[in-house]
């Protein structure tokens, strides 16, 4: 394992320009590295291209980025992105540079050289700490997998080989935060306590569930409110980057256009103000594996089959409740509505998105389900202050 301590002299780090062809090579390195791995779920190349392109991603209104690739003997052996999120630094009064989109062959010196490239770039920008893996915002992939290497990944999470955390730590990085993920069994009936809590909340606070059959209507009536609710619900979470109006416009079309509206539940108050949202999606893991990250020529067929075909797993993409209704049972309304749809569609398992290990409010939702923690992922931090 590895190439020895003298391999650093053999490693060439190049900063790549954000052109379409260079970014494609940056993205394809990951696809090549994990080719044939049954747990890895590839991103859609077109999605990652849009995320990394300064002309397309509205996060560049407040972010800077630098992309690096490592080569040995002319062959790519690693990649990394350095990201400077000025919005989060201002909000949290920090001088952090993020690293993300990190992948490398089984060699600690490649990992060290990639991280050093971001450290040097961040230091040149006046930063004092490196943190990651993180993306531009919380809607990007984040966290190095440290437990659950034998579990099938999801479209919303990172998969990496077990040597990643070992080599990142060997480069001087220490734990900053952990996320945990859970796999739940979908109950045949709504848990009695959920029904009881939901009924009490409806009467006490005048809350009710809204369902839509029209994408254009839900976009028009609650598209902006949905993302403003996310900002409100997540504002105090680790490294959260509030979505701007331009980002909200961007994400409304990307996300709401894909969803099965039976799996989207809104909770509103007496004045029809949005107080909670639950968004689920059939697991796209196997479909994305079959597509190889490409829509053409036949990737679209596999993705459509994943959305419409038989599937026994559903991903809980998003659960958000207005802060003043958290711990008051509003989330019970979401699952009182969603569980019958899960059963109707034949889902046997529901998979959570990453949740901060310290977020007891969120993890308390799963106590009424048969569940297990099946993955853990970690962000790291290192001082680069001279």
Can you tag this structure with a few keywords?
386 residues, alpha+beta, globular, disordered N terminus
Tell me about this structure.
The protein is an alpha+beta fold. The protein is built from twelve helices and 14 strands. It has helices at residues 20-33, 45-52, 86-92, 108-124, 163-170, 192-205, 215-234, 245-256, 285-291, 299-308, 330-344, 360-363; strands at 11-16, 63-72, 75-85, 96-104, 129-132, 144-147, 174-185, 208-210, 264-268, 274-282, 313-321, 349-352, 355-356, 371-383. Strands 1, 2, 3, 4, 5, 6, 7, 8, 9, 10, 11, 12, 13 and 14 form a 14-stranded mixed sheet that branches. Strand 2 and strand 3 form a beta hairpin. Helix 1 packs across helix 2, helix 6 packs across helix 11 (330-344) and helix 9 (285-291) runs antiparallel to helix 10. The model is unreliable at 1-8 (pLDDT under 50).
